[in-house]
Amino acid sequence: MTNALYINVVITVKLDNFTFIYICYLLTDDGRCTCEIKSRIAMAKAAFSKKKNLFTSKLDLNLRKKLVKCYIWSIALYGAETWTLRAVDQKHLESFEMWCWRRMEKISWTDYVRNEEVLIRVSEQRNILHEIRKRKANWIGHVLRRNCLLKEAIEGKIDGRIEVTRRRGRRRKKMLDDLGDRRGYCHLKEKALDRINWRNCFERDCGPVVLTDY
Questions:
Q1: Residues 10 and 24: beta-carbon distance below 8 Å
Q2: What are residue 8's phi and psi, to 5 degrees?
Q3: How confident is the model at residue 180 (pLDDT cuts 50, 70, 90)?
Q4: 55: left (phi over 0), alpha (psi -120 to 50) or beta
Q5: PANTHER family under this entry (predicted)?
Q6: Backbone angles phi, psi at 32, to 5 degrees
Q7: Cα–Cα distance between 45 and 28 in angstroms, integer?
Q8: Helices 87-104 and 115-122: crossing angle, nearest 10°?
Q9: Cα–Cα distance measured from residue 102 to residue 202, given in angstroms and rounded to the nearest whole number
Q10: Beta strands per DSSP E along the chain
Q11: Which residue has the higher pLDDT, 180 or 98?
Q12: Which of 1, 44, 148, 191 has the fewest CB atoms in 10 Å of its CB?
């Protein structure tokens, strides 16, 4: 139990699907992050409910927002650097973001208050997807600047034992696709060598995230 490499395995048989929990990270046989994201959101909501009196108190609004981002978002975004987000995953995360602000301001869904109005009340913008993209960029930039096993895995230099066949339809989204560089991996790798410019590039990019389904 005290070993750092201890694996807590939970096997759930459901139509031949298997789910593994490895170092607090939920892995599924389809390689998608949807189950992990839903699990993280559920844990974050439970943590919010435990400290609901604090987050909905009469403390300063900016202080309460910092508390939510520090304690609640940290739970929801654990391991977000490795997520490959589809459109449905992005919608789940944005819904969770609005859930936090609505609960913090005690706005019920029966009040029929639009999301734009909620954001105005808390003086915020939709920011959770940009936060994930920024974290992912910092982590991937760190990996690309090193010569390590993880870098070889990202570059596809490690051969697997399972024969992969071409699937019908659109190509599945990859982890590096979220960085939005259409000039290819080589240009991305070259740009990552300059740590300061690499981070500034993603700090400036605060625009809306376009939902693309893969």
A1: no
A2: -95, 105
A3: low
A4: alpha
A5: REVERSE TRANSCRIPTASE DOMAIN-CONTAINING PROTEIN, RIBONUCLEASE H
A6: -95, 165
A7: 22
A8: 50
A9: 28
A10: 19-22, 25-28
A11: 98
A12: 1
* pLDDT tens-digit map of 63-113: 999 999 999 999 999 988 888 888 899 999 999 999 999 999 999 988 899
Q: Return the DSSP state at 88.
A: H
Residue ranges covered by each domain of the chain: 20-125, 133-163+175-204
Q: How much is the pTM?
A: 0.73
How is residue 44 written in tokens? 């974050």
Q: What residues have CB less than 8 Å from 4, skipping those under 6 apart?
A: none
The tokens for 165 are: 């066949």
pLDDT at 88: 92
* Helix H or strand E segment including 190: helix 185-192
Mean pLDDT, residues 157-171: 63
C-alpha neighbours within 13 Å on the C-beta side of residue 163 = 1
